[in-house]
Design a protein that fits this description.
The chain is an alpha+beta fold and 246 residues long. Helices cover 30% and strands 30% of the residues. The mean pLDDT is 91.
């Protein structure tokens, strides 16, 4: 594990501590500041951004979902300091942090996602293969997918009622947990991941890197990741036929 990942893990420990034991309820309030990603920022968003910027700024300039471009450097870090902000603000335990590092040529060299609720960690190794660890223990291993998964993950499902109905009719069960990068990190454990609508680089840069070797389709209006090509093609057909466009 290189210095970048060590710094990211240390920052994730600090961030998880803040989320588990917040000292000030004002962190849970929206402050009227619209972040670079287009959403209103909360005190939690900005507090976690400060933690990760302090830890990671030596590794390159940071493009954060909250404050936009921060600092300088040959590498660029794509940071979502609180993936699943609404979950965290509701104290629903499915939220995390996502960081992708790109070199001066724009090639992704590191990807890191942490589940700040349960401590699960995800990163890629030097060959771009996914590894899984934990804030609660030492060591990294290859992810162990569920042998017979029964669900997929459909982020922002609430905006696509026709697709929801079609997936149900096709027997393609899903959950919609509300943290895009984190759901991509868990894509190996489920049948599929689906996102429909305009998407932002902060949500997908690190997550898609962790899906190397899976069936992946990225289009302007949707993203599908699946274990099997047949599943991807079934879902693509449902999306194309039933998508609600904003």
């Amino acid at each position: 594990m290189n210095d970048f990942y060590r710094a990211a893990v240390a920052a994730a420990h600090q961030a998880r501590e803040l989320l588990l034991y917040p000292q000030d309820d004002s962190l849970y309030a929206k402050n009227g500041f619209t972040g670079a990603g287009g959403d209103l920022s909360s005190g939690l968003d900005l507090a976690l951004e400060r933690i990760f910027v302090e830890a990671l700024h030596p590794f390159g300039r940071i493009e954060s979902e909250e404050s936009g471009l921060i600092g300088e450097g040959e590498s660029t870090l794509i940071l979502d300091p609180l993936d699943g902000s609404s979950n965290a603000l509701s104290r629903f335990p499915y939220y995390g942090v996502s960081v992708a590092r790109l070199n001066r040529e724009g090639v992704l060299t590191e990807a890191f996602i942490a589940n700040l609720a349960n401590g699960d960690l995800f990163r890629i190794d030097e060959e771009g293969e996914a590894l899984q660890g934990s804030l609660l223990s030492e060591g990294w291993r290859r992810p162990a997918p569920a042998p017979h998964p029964e669900i997929g993950l459909f982020e922002k499902a609430y905006a696509q009622p026709k697709i929801v109905a079609a997936l149900d009719e096709a027997g393609l069960k899903f959950r919609a947990p509300g943290a895009v990068a984190l759901s991509l990190a868990y894509a190996r454990s489920v049948n599929y991941f689906l996102f429909v609508g305009p998407f932002r680089i902060y949500d997908f840069a690190a997550g898609l890197a962790l899906c190397k070797g899976m069936e992946i389709e990225v289009e302007e209006e949707y993203v599908i990741v699946a274990r099997e090509r047949e599943t991807l093609e079934r879902i693509r057909g449902i999306v194309v036929s039933n998508q609600t466009r904003n």
